[in-house]
Specification:
By secondary structure, this protein is mostly helical. The protein has one domain: MetI-like (MetI-like fold). It is 71% helix and 3% strand. The chain has 14 helices and two strands. Strands 1-2 form a two-stranded antiparallel ribbon. It is globular. 29% of the residues are buried. The model has no long low-confidence stretch (mean pLDDT 89).
Amino acid sequence: MEIKKLRKGAWITFFVAPGLLVVSVFILLPLFMSLYNSFFSWNQLISDRFVGLGNFKRLFGSYPYKDRFFNALGNNVTWFVMTMLVQNSIGLLFGYLMSRRIAGNQVFRRIFFIPVLFSIIAVGFLWGLYLKPSGLLNSFFNLINQPDLRQVWLGDERLATLSIIFVNIWRWVGFPSLVFLAAIDAVPEECLEAAYLDGAGEWKLFWRVIFPLIIPSITIITVLTVIGSLNVFEQIYTMTGLDGAPNYSTDTIGTLFYRTAFGSVDSGSPEIGIGSAIGVVIYLLTFCISLASIYVTRKREVQL
């Protein structure tokens, strides 16, 4: 028996160890290094002296870091709200419609998911061209004789973030669509048949039967949305750059972190300490909000 247990433990270790190594090297180690670095002041790339929570105090209480941080955090909140309300709602609608076995179902599944496969850098670069004042979108409005609809999409403070969010939704909407489709397809047929026999229409069938049974998938999508919204970087980098143009209206805590850690907000030199503090805050926000999302959604889960 002891030999069997040792063999079983060895096999478990064999399969789990590579994953633990990857997580440790690329997630846990950088996290602890960021936490360690945030407790020191830095002279360029050399740690100077221990300052405790001094970098966090500067981040939340000193100009320009305080203003830049809360402005960037507000944009991240906008990303989360818009993604939850628009992207995931459309994904749920598409998933439900495709589960109804409409004509061309298989074709629609592929069409919706194709943008997810595209490189985020390529998507950002191409849409950056499309949204230029002389780009494809404004040219289309000229073509249909609607010049009043033309906008400086990435140069207007009111529209820049919303334009980039739209591009992100266009790219990712296929992912929640397929997740929700798989969840709806997994709902037991007997539950649906019982609801039909009780006289439930399409809306009551969805809201009273299907929706409660797909809460686990909604939990997953919500957590992924939280993580994605708090770690936005590549899309903004490729479409408007790292300075949050125009006038920091597209800045996020991801771009602020990069700009601070590798070329300070106010002096142009790296601020490793404050950059590390921003990294720690990003992790804590992601962790806490994800836990809260799991707690709230799981309270509504239904056990069959």
